[in-house]
Specification:
Blueprint lengths: L2 H6 L38 E7 L2 H9 L4 E9 L8 H5 L6 E8 L6 H10 L8 E2 L2 E2 L5 E5 L2 H20 L8 E4 L3 E3 L7 H4 L21
Parallel strand pairs: 6-7
Antiparallel strand pairs: 1-3, 1-6, 2-3, 2-8, 4-5
Helix pairs in contact: 4-5
Function: Has an important function as a repair enzyme for proteins that have been inactivated by oxidation. Catalyzes the reversible oxidation-reduction of methionine sulfoxide in proteins to methionine.
GO molecular function, one term: L-methionine:thioredoxin-disulfide S-oxidoreductase activity
Catalytic activity: [thioredoxin]-disulfide + L-methionine + H2O = L-methionine (S)-S-oxide + [thioredoxin]-dithiol; L-methionyl-[protein] + [thioredoxin]-disulfide + H2O = L-methionyl-(S)-S-oxide-[protein] + [thioredoxin]-dithiol
Length: about 220
């Protein structure tokens, strides 16, 4: 790996992170697929989830297609720089991951259903990369909003690890941590593959199915 790529794949120390800014960067006003105001709010009766699986363009499309998903938003989380821009995140000097925030109706789709899409939708064994995309912003991550979500993430991780091992894959590198602050990505990133159907999507799964039973 070239020096520049190696640097991008190393997590920046918080004291060395870019300073960012006090105000949020501007983003889209409407969701391009759902045709409703793009909002971070969680309506009554709905729940929230957040995942990092590589380039957020393709990841967001996976989740907006699921029945029961009310809202998807792409953004940045897990770093030290407040209100970062895309260019800053791509520099490797913010520590943020490209993430998708999902607002969903648990009466129509469960958190375990979302986890199945997460595990099967990318290769969670690649560390600070996903396919040809290299950098800390492409790491695999589950960012949980409750102890129940954390338990479900850990149980399904352990079950999926066994399936991956049988298929010849290595160790899962997914970080499972409490949900950090979420910062909206710029307007053009929101629902990018709806606006640009032929656009780049650099993620791909392992072809291994994930058992979801939470009896363990």
């Amino acid at each position: 790996m070239m020096l520049f790529q190696r640097k991008k794949a190393e997590m920046v120390r918080p004291e060395d992170a870019l300073p960012g800014r006090d105000h949020p960067i501007s983003t889209a006003k409407m969701h391009h697929v759902f045709n409703r105001p793009l909002s971070n709010d969680v309506p009554d009766g709905m729940e929230e989830a957040m995942f990092g699986m590589g380039c957020f363009w393709g990841v967001e499309r996976m989740f907006w297609k699921l029945p029961g998903v009310h809202m998807t938003l792409v953004g940045y989380a897990g770093g030290a720089t407040p209100n970062p821009t895309y260019d800053e995140v791509c520099s490797g000097r913010t520590g943020h991951n490209e993430v998708v925030r999902v607002i969903y109706d648990p009466e129509k789709i469960t958190y375990e259903d979302l986890l199945r899409t997460f595990w099967e939708g990318h290769d969670p064994t690649q560390g600070m990369r996903q396919g040809n995309d290299i950098g800390t912003q492409y790491r695999s991550g589950i960012y949980t909003y409750s102890e129940a979500q954390k338990r479900a993430a850990e149980i399904t991780r352990d079950a999926f690890q066994e399936r991956l091992k049988e298929a010849g894959y290595g160790t899962i590198t997914t970080e499972i941590v409490d949900a950090p602050a979420f910062y909206h990505a710029e307007d053009y990133h929101q629902q990018y593959l709806s606006k640009n159907p032929g656009g780049y999507c650099g993620i791909g799964g392992t072809g291994v199915t994930c058992p979801i039973g939470l009896e363990a």
